[in-house]
Amino acid sequence: MELSDRVVLVTGGANGIGRAICRRIAQELPQGIVIADRELTGARAVAAEIGGIAVECDVSCEADLQAVVQRTIDEFGRIDVAISNAGVTAKGGFETPDSDWDRLWRVNVLAHVYLARAVVPVMVAQGDGAFVVTASAAGLLTEIGSAAYSVTKHGAVAFAEWLSVHYRNQGLKVACLCPAGVATDFLDLEDPIHQFLHVSSVTPEHVAECVVDTLRQESFLVLPHAEVGEFFQFKSQNYDRWLHNFAHLNTRLQRQTERARAKAVAVEIPGEPGSPAT
Ligand SMILES: NC(=O)c1ccc[n+]([C@@H]2O[C@H](COP(=O)([O-])OP(=O)(O)OC[C@H]3O[C@@H](n4cnc5c(N)ncnc54)[C@H](O)[C@@H]3O)[C@@H](O)[C@H]2O)c1
């Protein structure tokens, strides 16, 4: 799909990957770009820069997404490309509180379902449209530092696959973006696991270029890191070996985390009033 003269909606477009996608698509001279984000100030700044429309929207709320889609259709009479990109994370394993599991489920999975409910019937009626799900490499592999992120991003990949299988013969192109580390505010550089991701991170501009290329080729997986494709292939060829390798990496990163914690405590103790070291 070419993007000139198209009407495009991007969620989570105020920052990071979403903002880079908005900027890159603007170069293709679309008819309109709607930037939906819970951060209205950031969305307005992007809209002012690229001549788009900013709308405040919490993607975990179906009514908000319906309102954004309606606003887009009222303004332009159609919607050609929906990029369901907003996403959140929470660190931790199965001890992660239910409130966080619920938040990630709503933003990382249900938001794609809500947006699809609102736009897919419109695209099917138009006979043409594209839906991009921003998942993550965590949805094809795993994110060692977050059980809830890994599970919900697998859910996002699964939903994108389902959407593609059900609607590709009705003119809908579905793409699923699965990057590993991307240099945005999303990465917490205090966290050794995110530090590890940062080492091989790519820029959001590179990710945006890959999204535009994939839309042009009308293929499914958007892989800004070639190694993610290789690991994914390896996982399907030798699941046990893949688990073994990731377990090894997990042990290494956990040791690093423990060492970083111990160092932080050692720095804190001497200055702590009443501590044995003072
Ligand atoms: N940065 C990475 O390393 C990385 C890697 C893989 C996948 N991803 C995914 O890429 C997407 C974008 O991440 P990013 O790195 O640009 O992060 P970011 O934090 O820089 O930007 C995320 C944007 O989403 C918005 N947002 C969050 N929750 C929202 C909600 N409920 N409603 C509306 N807007 C909301 C934020 O306000 C922000 O503008 C996410 O889905 C993330 O999971 C990021």
Would you give an account of this structure?
The protein is of the alpha/beta class and 278 residues long. It has two domains: 7-225, Rossmann fold (3-Layer(aba) Sandwich), CATH 3.40.50.720; 238-278. Helices cover 55% and strands 12% of the residues. The chain is built from nine helices and seven strands. It has helices at 16-26, 40-50, 62-76, 98-126, 147-167, 192-199, 204-217, 226-237, 239-271; strands at 7-11, 32-37, 53-56, 81-84, 129-134, 172-177, 221-222. The chain is globular. Bound molecules: nicotinamide-adenine-dinucleotide (NAD). Nicotinamide-adenine-dinucleotide binds at residues 11-12, 14-18, 37-39, 42, 57-60, 85-88, 107, 134, 136, 179, 181-182, 184-187, 197.
Shape, per Cα inertia axes? globular
Please work out how many helical segments DSSP would assign: 9
Question: In CATH terms, what is the fold-level topology of the largest domain?
Answer: Rossmann fold
Sheet having the most strands: 7 strands, parallel
Ligand inventory reads: nicotinamide-adenine-dinucleotide
User: What's the total number of strands?
Assistant: 7
Task: Work out the count of structural domains.
Answer: 2
Broad CATH class of the largest domain: Alpha Beta
Structural class of the helix and strand makeup? Answer: alpha/beta
The side-by-side strand order for the widest beta sheet comes to 3-2-1-4-5-6-7
Mean pLDDT: 93
Please bin the fraction of helical residues.
55-70%
Low-confidence stretches: 269-278
Distance, first to last CA? 67 Å
What fraction of the residues are assigned to beta strands by DSSP? 5-15%
User: What is the helix/strand order?
Assistant: EHEHEHEHEHEHHEHH
